[in-house]
Design a protein that fits this description.
The structure holds 2 protein chains of 2 kinds. By secondary structure, chain A is mainly α. Chain A contains 12 helices and no strands. Chain B is an alpha/beta fold. Chain B has helices spanning 46-52, 76-83, 101-111, 116-129, 145-157, 175-192, 203-209, 227-232, 237-245, 251-258, 281-289, 322-331, and strands spanning 2-15, 18-31, 35-39, 61-66, 69-70, 86-89, 163-167, 195-200, 212-217, 220-226, 267-272, 293-303, 306-315, 335-338. In chain B, helix 4 packs across helix 5 and helix 5 runs parallel beside helix 6. Chain B is globular. Classes of the chains: A mainly alpha, B alpha/beta.
């Protein structure tokens, strides 16, 4: 393995030991990890800020919904379909002028959050729509029979009963956004994907690329495991026994993700509005 | 005064091939404190009719009056307010699966804007009435069907309604659980004076608790009146068919009446096979021994293409000739066995 690497990276000066290797690439990789986490979490958060209401609107205005409205449904449906039918790589390039207006430049992690979010919103809206449509019509009818308003049905029935499905879908959405963020590396997006493209594709430096890909896989696994954990834990249709070990992992991951998301959102706001 | 009046009610649904008339010119008067059954086969329009009573379905024609006020005159907001005084329970219970038992019961109170503490107090009272207070922290998935329906009843009663609509509330339950739920409904009707409307396809349900009944067929009320009147003098073939299907499963109740006559005598089950059914065995038994025999239940069943007759008999208590009588039945080709479930 080391021999192949030596061969492949012969073009550049090859560090002879792991500490030396880390001294050379460590800083860049840690920044890459943070860049990816930053893009993924902030895009998912803003994506849900708009995607969740859009998904609710799609559910409510559909012909079997709480308040059918063919016009609103069709408009949202068409918007979602248009955005979803553009491949992300094309959307990324298509939105460069818009991103430049909004962020001031079109490269780097903060800039990539713009196309990432725009791609995420309709995707998330569709996910939310499918989760909410799974909610048993009988329970909605029961709520109506008790005199619940549409708003009460949305907040107290749909979002509550669809919880498990919503969390599972949020996990899937986050995984997809993580993948998209890596794709943004081709146009100088920042994060791990960017490193993989620059070192693996432009410089044939496979050692860096392999490590980057491994890191991406680990990140994806973490998000996925965590999402499934919450979905199962909070599903009241199943038993909820949680062992001490899973509880510790759960708490640690929750704190970690919350802190990352917090820092991410703050730095995003800073870069966007306080430049 | 009539609590619920349904006047010339019709409901049409649009469908692929034109329109489906679910209800045609239905007229009903349900008086306050009554337990009113609406019975019919599936597709007769029962569920649509009960949903018109709280305007979950808006009738195409006709009016529904609750305490003299027409639901059609209400605005959306007034209608929601009105629904708070009409509770409803369902075949599949329709509980919030992600909320605990007590939160389910609190649900209608939260909708009315009550605070958590106050709502919990009321919910605990209700859970006590339905006998599930110790399960208040459990989730519906951990309960049996009968328990879930009890939670649903507690939830329907939370806002102190005057009317309780039951849409096939016992159809997903076994006979024992059905009886206990019906007993609970009867208790609620008696204690709180709530008018109960019961939609069902089981005549046994109507017989057990209803005072009045309307029989629905293809969206038309074919017969209505007091339950005892319809049972003794059914006028239509639909009524007769429903009564025929209701082959009594409540030997338990009839037993209470005969217990004075032959108290605690031995109970046996005899089974006639096809060829032994020709001979009047029981008559001959009584004539031969000169001893009374009580028939608790008699039924014929088609078992694998062969008609099998089953009878539950009770002998006089401490009769020394009981064994001889059992032997007589055996000798005449009947299968004789114990029937501990009737003892």
């Amino acid at each position: 393995m080391l021999n192949t690497m030596t061969f492949l990276t012969a073009a550049t000066q090859m560090p002879s030991s792991i500490p030396e290797w880390w001294a050379q690439y460590g800083k860049m990789l840690t920044e890459g990890i943070w860049g990816t986490i930053y893009m993924t979490l902030v895009s998912t958060a803003i994506g849900y800020l708009f995607g969740l209401p859009m998904g609710v609107a799609l559910t409510v205005t559909d012909k079997d919904g709480l308040r059918p409205n063919a016009v609103i449904y069709k408009v949202l449906d068409v918007i979602a379909n248009i955005v979803r039918s553009i491949p992300f790589l094309i959307l990324l390039i298509l939105l460069i002028p818009f991103t430049r207006v909004l962020v001031g430049r079109s490269y780097g992690t903060t800039a990539v959050i713009v196309p990432l979010t725009i791609a995420a919103i309709p995707f998330i809206a569709r996910m939310v729509e499918s989760s909410l449509k799974e909610v048993d019509a009988g329970v909605i009818e029961a709520a109506r029979s008790m005199g619940a308003s549409n708003w009460q049905i949305i907040t107290r029935v749909l979002l509550v009963e669809g919880k498990t499905s919503l969390i599972i879908n949020a996990t899937i959405a986050m995984g997809t956004i993580l993948g998209y963020s890596a794709m943004a590396g081709t146009v100088g997006g920042g994060g791990l994907g960017d490193i993989a493209v620059r070192y693996g594709y432009n410089r044939y430096q496979y050692d860096v690329m392999f490590v980057t890909v491994a890191l991406l896989i680990i990140l994806f696994q973490l998000f996925q495991t965590y999402g499934m954990m919450i979905a199962n834990h909070f599903d009241r249709r199943k038993g909820n026994a949680m062992t001490v070990v899973t509880l510790v992992i759960f708490v640690v991951l929750t704190v970690l993700i919350a802190v990352c998301a917090g820092i991410g959102i703050i730095s995003f706001i800073k870069e966007m509005f306080l430049k | 005064m009539s609590e619920i009046i349904v006047e010339h009610l019709s409901k049409t649904f649009p469908s692929k091939d034109g329109r489906v008339e679910a209800l045609k010119d239905v007229n009903l008067e349900i008086s306050s404190g009554d337990i009113y059954g609406i019975i019919g086969m599936s597709g007769a329009g029962k569920s649509t009719l009960v949903r018109c009573m709280n305007y979950l379905e808006v009738p195409t024609e006709g009016r529904v009056l609750i305490e003299g006020k027409a639901l059609g005159d209400f605005t959306e907001k007034e209608l929601r307010k009105q629904r708070e005084s009409i509770g409803m329970i369902f075949q599949h219970f329709n509980l919030l699966m992600q909320k605990s038992v007590i939160e389910n019961v609190c649900f209608p109170l939260y909708i009315q804007g009550q605070k958590k503490e106050q709502a919990h107090k009321r919910a605990e009272e209700l859970l006590n009435i339905v006998g599930l207070l110790e399960k208040k922290k459990a989730y519906p998935a951990q309960l049996s069907g009968g328990q879930m329906q009890r939670v649903a009843i507690a939830r329907a009663l939370a806002s102190s309604p005057k009317i309780l609509l039951c849409d096939e509330a016992t159809s997903a339950l076994d006979p024992q659980t059905t009886s206990s739920i019906l007993a609970l409904l009867k208790q609620i009707n008696r204690e709180f004076g709530i008018t109960i409307v019961i939609i069902t396809h089981q005549m046994s349900v109507v017989r057990e608790i209803c005072e009045h009944v309307a029989i629905l067929k293809d969206g038309v009320v074919v017969e209505k009146g007091s339950v005892s009147e319809i049972f003794s003098h059914p006028k239509t073939s639909v009524a007769r068919e429903l009564i025929r299907q209701d082959s009594g499963t409540d030997a338990e109740k009839s037993m209470n009446k005969i217990q004075d006559e032959i108290n605690n005598g031995e109970i046996i089950r005899i089974v006639f096979s096809a060829n032994s059914a020709f001979e009047p065995v029981i008559s001959n038994l009584v004539l031969t021994f000169g001893e009374p025999v009580n028939i608790l239940k008699a039924d014929t069943k088609n078992v694998g293409g062969v008609a099998k007759g089953e009878m539950i008999l009770q002998f006089k208590k401490d009769n020394p000739r009981t064994e001889a009588m059992k032997q007589y039945l055996c000798d005449h080709g009947l299968e004789v066995g114990e029937a501990p479930e009737y003892a």
